[in-house]
Here is the input.
Amino acid sequence: MKIRVPATTANIGPGFDTMGIALNLYNYFELEEKKEKKTLADIAFGKYFEYIGKEIPNYSVKILDSEIPIARGLGSSASLIVGGIALANNLNNNYLSDIEILEIAIEVEGHPDNVTPAIFGGLCVSAVRDDKAFYCKREIDDSLNFVTFIPPYEVPTQKARSVLPKEIDYKKAIENMSNTAMIISLIGEKNYKDLSSFLHDNLHEPFRKELIKDYDSIKEISKNYGSIGTYISGSGPTMISLTLEEDFIEKLNDEKLSDIKILELKCDNEGYVVL
Ligand code: HSE
Here is the structure.
C-alpha cells in the first residue's frame, strides 16, 4: 500500500491561516519495518492510534519519493502528517472519515490551511471552532497555472511567524477580509482573470518579504510578463505567480533568476490518494 500526498500553497496572499490550494507536486509514502528514528510522519501515524485508543502497530513510515522541497512554503510537513495518518487509516480498514483525519492532522500541524487541501485537494477554506474542524472546497481547472519560484534557501515557518506584528490597522484588516472573500468567490466562479485585484495582503507579506531576497524581482518580472498576480506561498520563501498563459515560463528564460528553481504547476483536485 502506497500513499501519494500533494504539495500545498497556503494563504494565497490575503487568506492568512485560512485557505490553501493543493498542487500537482507529490510525496509518496509506505509502511516499513519499525526504525529507531522518528519523523513527523511517524508522529502523525502514532497520533492516529492514540486518537482511536489503540496500541501503535510496529511500523515506521517510509518516504519513498519526495518531490516537495523542505521548508520552502509548499506544505512538506503537512504532506508528512497526512501521509502518516492516511497510512494508519488504511492499515486500520479506513475506520476514520476524512474529516476525522483532518482533525488529527490539525492537532499535529497546529494550523489547518495546508493539511486541509493535502487531504481534500482543490482550494480549501478551513477553520476550527470549539475543537471541530470545518472546510469548504472549490475545484480549480487546469487553465490556471501556478508558476512556482523556489529559492535555494530555507525559511522555517517559525522564523517567518516571528517577524509578524501583534496588531494591525483596522482598514488594512478590512482590505484583507474583502480580498480573501473575493478570491474564494472568483475561484468558485472560475473567474481567474479578476483575481489580480485581490491578491494583495497586509497581514504577513509586508513583514516576510524581508526574508526573501528575490521578492521584489520575482514580483516585478512576473508583472512585466503579464501574470495575474504573485504571492508568497505559505510562509515562504517560495513565491507563486498565477497566469492563464501556457508559455509564461518560457518567456522567463532570459531573466536573471538563475539560482531559483521555477516549476509550472496545476491545482490537484483529489488530495491524498491510496495507490
Ligand atoms: N498560514 C501559515 C503561515 C502557513 O503563513 O504561517 C505555514 O505554511
Remarks:
- Residues 122 and 258 are 31 Å apart (CA to CA).
- The beta strands are 2-10, 19-33, 59-66, 123-129, 132-138, 145-150, 229-232, 239-243, 261-265, 273-274.
